[in-house]
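Progress note, project year one: complex with adenosine-5'-triphosphate.
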Amino acid sequence: MIGKNIRVTLGRREILHGLDFEARDGRVTAIVGPNGSGKSTLLKAMTGEIPATGDMSLNGRDIDAMQPWELASVRAVQSQSTTVAFPFTVIEVVRLGHSAGPWAAEPGIPEAALSRLGLDGYAHRYYHELSGGEQQRAQLARVLAQVWHPVQAFQPSWVFLDEPVSSLDIGHQFVVMDLLADYARQGGGVITVMHDLNLTAIYADHVVLMKDGQVLARGTPAEVLTDERLSQAYDHPLRVNRPAPSGVPYLLPQACRDAS
Ligand SMILES: Nc1ncnc2c1ncn2[C@@H]1O[C@H](COP(=O)(O)OP(=O)(O)OP(=O)(O)O)[C@@H](O)[C@H]1O
Ligand SMILES: [Mg+2]
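Model obtained:
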């Protein structure tokens, strides 16, 4: 996914100020940044949910030139919040994704997707009766069911996710992040908005740090998640730890307080 000079104006405000974005298949790309920095707007601009100017391409093709069915066959989207207006069961929600994707004729995918998200036994429950975290996992199952195979006809499939673990307990956060990492290792593309910088440090191959509708930094977690950059982005003194031997950066709230 490549976006050049992406600009979004909502109402009278310019929200994204002509930023460049690149995410490669086979990698987990995390978009991080403070509330209101434009993460969801960027995701929506790339998925065509809101109007944007700039050049955007997916798998080397201009997105504007792709038909909706072509896009649906290579990428699936999970928004920050999703409302299901009808009394659907969980399996019906997941089948919505499955039927939009290229493997609609391949049986068993919705059930397998539910299983990957630890939702065996939930298929025939009403979606609106699930807890917030269960609903979020069901939505990810819908996304997965749409683009089940990370590579199709030598082309990568993509998932665009807006805070997919925000309502999840720590165990299920790891289940989901492992699943996304596997998807990328198998050749798919993963673009995910994240608030948890520790999970980002563990799982992201590439990090895009946003502030005020622009990209403040991009690179590996080690390059982007630094004291200076995070403190600048979040307007708060933050201290990053790098324990040996992994060197994977992590933040603790206590450490943040000590830093001030
Ligand atoms: N429909 C809209 N009309 C006007 N302004 C909007 C609209 N949607 C979002 N904005 C503004 O755009 C800015 C970026 O919003 P966005 O939802 O992209 O932030 P975010 O980085 O995803 O934040 P969060 O971490 O809270 O989800 C915010 O200042 C928001 O108020
Ligand atoms: Mg958002």
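The mean pLDDT is 95.
The two ends are 39 Å apart (CA to CA).
No further modelling is planned for this target in the current period.
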